[in-house]
## 1
Amino acid sequence: MSTPFYVSPQQAMADRAEYARKGIARGRSVVVLQYADGIVFVAENPSRSLHKISEIYDRIAFAAVGKYNEFENLRIGGVRYADLRGFTYDRADVTARGLANVYAQTLGTIFSSAAEKPYEVELIVAEVGPAPEDDQIYRLPHDGSIVDEHGSLAVGGNSDQINSFLEQRHRDDMTLAEAVKLGKESLARDNNGGERELTADQLEVALLDRSRVQQRKFKRVLGPQLRRLLGEDSSSGGSSATSGSGESDSSSEGDAEE
Amino acid sequence: MEANTRDTGRLPAAFLTPGSSSFMDFLSDHAPDVLPGNRPLPAVEGAVQAPHGTTIVAATYAGGVVLAGDRRATMGNVIAQRDIEKVFPADEFSAVGIAGTAGLAVEMVKLFQLELEHFEKVEGSALSLEGKANRLSTMIRSNLGMALQGLAVVPVFAGYDVDREKGRIFSYDVTGGRSEEVGFTAVGSGSVFARGSLKKLHRDDLTEEQVATVALQALYDAADDDSATGGPDMARRIYPTLTVISDEGCRKLPEDEVSGLVRAMHEGRLEQPNGPKAPLS
């Protein structure tokens, strides 16, 4: 057997990081924005069933970019972690911080274990609190580090550009419609400063709405409601006039999650 | 490269194993001792004294189904609790009412709610109503050992079937046997009297308010003849719980609404202590 070449640990880690980063950069982005009543997630995702944004627990949601099978695996692990914790203690004892820590440990171990291929994923774990200042957003890059974020945030493909676009325009007291529109505009930026046209059909939008009466604050924004929020619904004049109250209508209409 | 290979803080393998959407399957894999059915049964002689929940009634109406429960828990001849709640929402479109050993039943319901929610989150879509009913069957069966020692749990499961667009009721026996009921059912110690009452009062074309009154009448009749079923406690303002499930989801009627219905029924009973009379033919 031949002796393997010596690779310095720095080089080995740099190679793994490079590998993971390239995988993540291939995917389309997800943006997360705080708005007046909670946190909204906007992703470019033409699929109706393979979600990038999902519910983890009452107040906690999950968004991810990168390889679907890898983040789906982590998502299910997170749901199991949250449900088990809520079952053994209480629903109030499931926190985004706890979940983000477990994800960070998991990603970190996988990243530094030579036997495993690093995960090509970047995760967001967000929790909506009773008041805007209690909202928490954590970003979890592929290497197991954990970043506490506020306001607005993008991960995935050209996240740097989207982030700088968002930074200039995002306010914490935006309405839902403003936040979703800003999310869409930011995702429409492409690498060389140009802009593409994105429609409601290409977007996956979900929110953690603190004003929801139900215990589970997560809600997907689908079809007609999304078009109305984006102002694409020009068919009837009446609907745009009621779009403000329409949000509260739909939040009380129950957990039609799918 | 791993500094600590034994306990790295990462999610254990069971968490990341793909395949099952069931929380109970996950528990039996990862933490079997937490599952209610897996506890070793100590040998006991005679009946175990533990609070028992009593009567639950369920009845369908034009737009869905209503599930009502009295508020009494008994332990032998003692009233263990006079304001216990025995009807719980299982998810958006279903609810479960429990009769039998209260402690075990509440735990079973908690696990059942979680099982449905877990499936919904993992799969991205809710179980069918039949699927939910079958899941509950499995859970009751896992409690058979306890049931044989006198700690039985017998639930009623009611839900709105969004595919068939109607309310449906499922009743169970201690072995997990499941049967779908047409129109109405009752379980618990006062169920015999409640069912007799429902038989005379229930019709398919009732409105939500009417079916709620029918359920309250049935519970009143059960409390009239069964000492373990609690009637409405006018002095303490403890009234039966009423949960309505329709195409809009599962809704527990607020106390002022229930108290209005109870007071109206009580007024009638002051005139006719045996309740409304059904026509002879």
Note: The radius of gyration of chain A is 19 Å.
## 2
Amino acid sequence: MLRILQFLYSLRSFLLFILLEIIAIWLLVANNSPQGAAFFNSSNALVGSILETQSNVSDFFSLAEANEALVVENSRLMEKLSSLKLEPDSVSISLDSALSSQFEFMGARVISNSLRYTQNHMTLNKGRKQGVKPGMGIFNESGVVGRVKSVSDNYAVGISLLNNDLLISSIIKSTGDFGSINWNGKDSKKAKMLYVPRHVQAQVGDTVVTSGYSAVFPRNLKIGVISNVIQSSDPNYLDIEVTLTADFSKISYVYLVENTQIDELDSLYQQSELTNEF
Amino acid sequence: MNFRNLISFIFLLLILGLVQILFLKNLALFGIAFCFLYLVGILSLPFQIREIPLLLISFGVGLTIDVFYDTLGLHASAATLLAFLRPLWLKIIRPNGGYDDSTQPTLQEMGLGWFISYSLPLTFAFCLLFFTADQWGSGAFLGILNKSLFSSIFTVLLAIIVQLLFFKRRRGI
């Protein structure tokens, strides 16, 4: 017995090494599930405040560009508003929930963002107190950016679109065929569109937008433009490469979107025993 | 390690950690050469430090960096590997007379050639585990090797520059 203990004692540093590695790998695996522990990440208050100070400084240098993008977005919204303000030429009657607003929007600032790993995340400066919830969609004026993964009181961590865990339900605008957008893991400007059948006439230059099926994003939000279509060896699906319209290296301000009817949809799916694959 | 060294070491780790988080986090030369400057903190711990505290310190440092990177466990596992290999590698490259107890494994005390042969393989091992864990399942072995090689060279290069500029000649920092 004593010998065994002595033997183990002589191996103590190796055993500690193995133990620490197991802890690290466990953390790595546990944290990569979408419901990962919310405490040990950048939505933690101390870490969030340090990252926010840093982005306060670095955002100063991109103010001009952010302003320009906001002006463009504003003008687009004004155009839409003016078209909605047309004089009514008929009697208005109240309709049911089909026409009431299903999505609510809010703005946030990205205080930390990564693009060089295979699973990239971003930290936003809004949290539970401001009404951010896990599962909300994130986009900016040029395209879809990601989804909220976990929130703390004042910060939120989002899974970037540049994360091979995230699938976004999408359609090719011109043909109406749907598929899933998934990052290719290498280039921060390119993604793949999966599950598009071979008979679809996808053209280079076609726009890819959100489908609205997943109940995370509203319909017709821009994602990217098809840059390459290959008839691959896969007998069922096309290999489509999409150039993302959002420039992930420059993201500073984003919008968050919440589907106010998601609970109703979820319970409906549960009743009919379907899984809503986002 | 006396009290004075302990304070200066904690100070060094804090500064390196801040530089890593604030400036080097999103830096990647040509998209492949990353810099893990905070490893200088682990590499320049004194020769006579015991293995157990070395492992625990490295794990803690890695975990702290991870929290800021949102990659929980990634830096921690790689830094722990580095800490485990450090004493073994030091034993292999030991000069004829052995190590002087009062010296530290820094560029100023041990010379450029020795420092490169000490730090380059260790950072390479670190990078290898780091990128393997990061790209687990994507199977791009050549990409991992490529990134590891250039990242370790870049890290050692920056470590040399930092030590030349900021480390005092005869004392830790």
Note: Chain B touches chain A at residues 21-22, 25-26, 28, 31, 34, 51-52, 55-56, 59, 62-63, 66-74, 76-77, 80-81, 83-84, 87, 133-135, 138 (CB under 8 Å).
